[in-house]
Design a protein that fits this description.
The complex is a heterotrimer.
Chain A: E1 2-7, H1 16-29, E2 33-39, H2 60-71, E3 75-78, H3 79-85, H4 90-95, E4 107-110, H5 113-121, E5 124-128
Parallel strand pairs in A: 1-2, 1-5, 2-3, 3-4
Chain B: E1 3-7, H1 16-22, E2 29-32, H2 47-53, E3 58-62, H3 63-68, E4 81-83, H4 85-94, E5 97-101
Parallel strand pairs in B: 1-2, 1-5, 2-3, 3-4
Chain C: E1 7-12, H1 21-32, E2 38-43, H2 67-71, E3 80-83, H3 84-89, E4 101-104, E5 110-113, E6 115-118, H4 120-127, E7 132-135
Parallel strand pairs in C: 1-2, 1-7, 2-3, 3-6
Antiparallel strand pairs in C: 4-5
The chains are: A alpha/beta, B alpha/beta, C alpha/beta.
Chain lengths: 130, 102, 136
């Protein structure tokens, strides 16, 4: 079955990103297809490569990147939500005149249409949030 | 046709569980995750509403979340079933849609 | 609307301004309107406050986005279900909500109300008829 995952909160403050990560792994292990993982609201903060959690803690961005690149997941960060919160890729940084970008490997920035499209294409959509 | 409802907040923090239980259709399932598992503790103020819901719906708890909060399987309202993340995925697949009560 | 359109339900349960969910939900509705799916909006719990009339936001320094709901009719988004019990619990009635209308193309463009106040049993039935539920 094709599943779409929506992550609406950033790492660490809320458990949403952890739960979504465990769920996505379990879905892949069960042989399901992940249509897309869409990061919205503060969920876009999962995509910054600049986090440095303590060594004895989990690194959620790295775990998403590893899961995404290993399985070829389409991990989309909402552009409007990302711009509000300072998550930029190289193109956006240039376009907005910012001196740096911070998006991590495995994520891409795109529009909200990708969320609707995921709902249309997938057999199920599951939201993780606050 | 049935719905899987997920509740991730303690019922002592927000009305999400109460609101969810108020909108169940017979045959639906409720999965308590994250702080939502706090409702599952037997003897709590939410035991009765959960027992009432279980007359025509199923109630599940995500066991990694209950374990993390020191709630053992024997501590829960009778009739609640536990699932792991794989079981969570199975519930999503089994029901026609998932509604998250955020 | 295409024949294989899916039924999308946007569930709004949070008041505006205290958190960003109401505003960013509205942004999804606006983008989603272009996809020609069957769109329904549900307002329950504190979400009923999103439609409250008389929102004055100058004092909190935020943009008042409540007029945007009135524009949704132009995008064929005209099913706003508001839960009666949620209104009553909060001391509100339908008169406390802003007037939102759309022009019905199947009825000689007659102006009709987009807001329909429904009771809890009707709301749960509406929820149970959807293909995709987006919760905010």
């Amino acid at each position: 079955m094709k599943l779409a995952i929506v992550v609406n909160e950033g790492p660490y403050t809320h458990q949403a990103s952890d739960t979504a990560l465990h769920f996505t792994r379990a879905a892949l292990e069960a042989g399901h297809e992940i249509e897309r993982v869409f990061f919205y609201h503060d969920g876009v903060n999962n995509a910054t490569r600049l986090t440095v959690p303590p060594q004895d803690d989990r690194n959620l961005q790295k775990e998403w990147t590893e899961l995404g690149t290993t399985h070829g997941l389409d991990m989309v960060v909402c552009i409007a939500a990302a711009q509000r919160r300072g998550i930029l890729d190289a193109n956006e940084a240039k376009r907005q005149g910012k001196d740096a970008d911070n998006i991590a490997e495995g994520f891409r920035i795109s529009g909200l249409g990708q969320l609707i499209d995921a709902g249309i294409q997938a057999d199920r959509l599951v939201t993780f949030g606050d | 046709m049935s719905t899987l409802h997920t509740v991730n907040k303690s019922p002592f923090d927000r009305p999400s569980l109460t609101s969810c239980l108020n909108h169940l259709m017979p045959g639906d399932a409720v999965l308590l995750i994250e702080d939502g598992v706090i409702a599952a503790r037997k003897g709590s103020a939410f035991s009765s509403p959960l027992e009432a819901a279980m007359k025509d719906c199923s109630v599940y708890v995500l066991s990694p979340d209950s374990s993390a909060r020191g709630i053992g399987d024997g501590d829960m309202v009778s009739g609640i079933e536990t699932v792991d993340y794989g079981g969570f995925v199975d519930l999503v697949v089994k029901h026609d849609r998932t509604q998250s009560w955020l | 609307m295409s024949e294989d359109a899916k039924k999308f339900l946007y569930v709004n349960r949070k008041a505006p301004y205290g958190t960003i969910y109401a505003l960013e939900s509205l942004e999804v509705v606006l983008i989603g309107a272009a996809f020609e799916q069957e769109v329904t909006l549900a307002f329950l719990d504190d979400g009923v406050y999103q439609l409250a009339k008389g929102q004055e936001t100058a004092g909190v320094g935020m943009k008042n986005f409540s007029p945007t709901y009135r524009a949704l009719g132009d995008y064929d988004v005209n099913k706003f279900y508001v839960e009666r019990e949620s209104l009553e619990e909060r001391g509100l009635t339908e008169d406390d909500l802003q007037e939102i209308t759309y022009e019905d193309e199947d009825d000689d463009w007659a102006e009709k109300p987009s807001i329909r106040v429904v009771n809890r049993d009707e709301m749960k039935k509406i929820m149970s008829e959807q293909d995709v539920i987006l919760s905010f």
